[in-house]
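Hi, here's the filled form for the chain we discussed.

Project: internal
Contact: R.S.
Residues: 335
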Amino acid sequence: MPPALTFNVSASRVWRATAGTLSRLMTRAPLFWGILLMLLTTGLWALAFVVPVVLGGSSAAEITVGRFLVYGALSLASLGATRTGQLSWRLFGIAFLLALAGNVAFYFILTLGIQLSGATFAILVIGMVPVTISLFGRVATDEGRLRDIAPPLGLFILGVVTFNLGKTDFLRDLSDFSALGTLCLLACLVMWTWYAIANARFLRQHPNIDAREWNSLIGAASLVAVLLAAPIFYGLGELRSPLAIPRQEMASIVWWSIVLGGGSTWLAYLLFNLAARLLKVSLLGQLIIFEAIFGVFYVFLVSGKIPNLVEMTGMAVALLGIWWSVRRLQRERRA
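And the returned structure, exactly as it came back:
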């Protein structure tokens, strides 16, 4: 047997043995492990808030292309170690739609919305993603009556709104209202809500599909999507030729593309897919609030900005709503 093939088979066996052990461990306490995985996931996702601050001279298109080129390359490499023969063009088509909605198009349209409507208004709109996932996910999966989670969800909404009202530039951003920017942000809200619900439902309905393999397939689809989008970005003047970028800036773009593509995307989505098998969609959606919370602290570490009292109060109220929701879900599991 050729050495490369031997390594590939060995890596596949090691991964499946490790995955099997972890799966048995997680099924004993699915709520605990699901929440832990979502905390790790949102912590990695929140790294995306720091990169635009560090790479202030680079466009959103350049960051997007770099991120998903790395993610796609890692995904293609890992497909060889996890390939089970279950892949098909139908699965790739589903993965492409998820990749387009939840990755490439989402990030670019979100950037346009921020540029047109202001950062704080964007945070207020996108901050409703956990709420829309909880509401529509509960209806789509028939997890129970909406009124069962109405009180904790109401507290959670109050916390999110309070957190965004605490922004010092809130009124200034609202004064720069843009209809096109608002449409962009609402489109992002719809896209990510659909992505989270569709992805979680697909994984729960196809337990035979390995989470790492599915994550890698979405990554490969993201690579195709970003390669198709790159000429459009270049034509719009949002993407420079690598030869036109100063060497030091190019080195920074490459480094942060590795951080985003490898950690904030590839590893984070692997953990998210594992969590989606363990948690109800309604709880999965609410836990995404931790992305914003981690993001606040990451930005604080980079810029030295401390959240004000209103922002911290909003985070505390949102966390209280999540805790209340967890308690209710625990009672449902015991019933």
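Let me know if anything looks off before we file it.
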